[in-house]
């Protein structure tokens, strides 16, 4: 816990595990023993990513567009047709590809057996490739009973914690694919919430949030193998009953961070697709997308009055947004700048893993991979000062969680 005047009261071990980003949700490589196959959606067998501005500048393009192939399924339709990793996709059926997301949307709108024609740039030359789309095999678990060991606690890293409004229960989400509700007085599990899951990564939870009024529980991660949108969906549970009531679909990669607004009406999500989104929880619809980060969004937060949102990314920046219209207020880059000043010529990243607003809204705190805690102006995003950087082995541990005290005078942070 750190006093905001600068004194370090003590080091606290992290309560969050490191989040693993799945690189290609489109790819299903094989079926496991004891599993059955059923037919699924259209299948290209390729994962794509947006081109960066630097990449499009190098190509001599006036505006960023196109997509880059980042992964291929061995033996999939794309690989069989000659598509290669790092190929640049220029157009689909004669229509310019705007970005990776628009390309995925266009492919998913087609049916198995459709032949698509791609203009592809490779080694400085453009060529045409025709691909016959397949039908994706979907792995489903046996319908019989499954033997599971209940140790009375989690069996993998805990990624998020929340306390109910009355202070009587603790809610924990884990990479072991479960959410546990604990009685704080006795320290015992009251109930366990399990989502859809199967062998491997399917069902892994990377983020969880409880609404301030205690009504909604949100969970995100790699939650299905049916298709990309289902895998990256956010599940909303009625907390009292544990019943799944809504599934929010719009992200294109796993969800890594979640936060409710103080009135419990909106949900903010950050994803490995490099965007954040603000949702209307009751209506189950996406209100706006916050785009601009160049890497995964690991941290999100609302200001207490709900007027601003903050997002932290592995691109070493924080962005401050107007939560009413999604317009950017500030890009905050001191995490990256200070590393470049202190370690010129050395490769070391200060990806932002945690962000938090003070209760009075005057400050934003951020924590990074390299162990720094920084303070920013909560209204303008202007950098104020580095609050903590112990250095040494402790300093090299990522700050994965931050929380201000109700009076905004103290800051609790956790390292992993």
Give the strand tally: 31
Helix content: under 10%
Distance between the termini: 14 Å
Query: What is the number of helices?
Result: 6
Mean pLDDT, as a whole number? 84
**Any low-confidence stretches, pLDDT <50, length ≥5?**
1-39
Overall form: globular
Structural class: mainly beta
Which oligomerization state do the chains in this entry correspond to? single chain
Rg over alpha carbons = 22 Å
Sheet with the most strands, sense and barrel status = 6 strands, antiparallel
Strand content is 35-45%
What does this structure look like?
The chain has 416 residues and is mainly beta. Helix content is 9%, strand content 44%. The strands form eight sheets. Strands 3, 4, 5, 6, 7 and 8 form a six-stranded antiparallel beta sheet that branches.
What tags apply to this protein structure?
single chain; 416 residues; mainly beta; disordered N terminus
Topology:
Elements: E1 2-3, E2 36-43, E3 46-50, H1 53-59, E4 67-72, H2 77-80, E5 88-92, E6 95-96, H3 100-108, E7 115-122, E8 125-132, E9 134-140, E10 158-163, E11 169-174, E12 178-183, E13 188-194, E14 204-210, E15 216-222, H4 228-231, E16 234-238, E17 243-248, E18 255-260, E19 266-271, E20 275-280, E21 285-291, E22 297-302, E23 308-313, E24 318-322, E25 328-332, H5 334-342, E26 352-357, E27 363-368, E28 373-377, E29 383-388, H6 392-395, E30 399-404, E31 410-415
Antiparallel strand pairs: 1-31, 2-9, 3-4, 4-5, 5-6, 5-7, 7-8, 10-11, 11-12, 12-13, 14-15, 15-16, 16-17, 18-19, 19-20, 20-21, 22-23, 23-24, 24-25, 26-27, 27-28, 28-29, 30-31
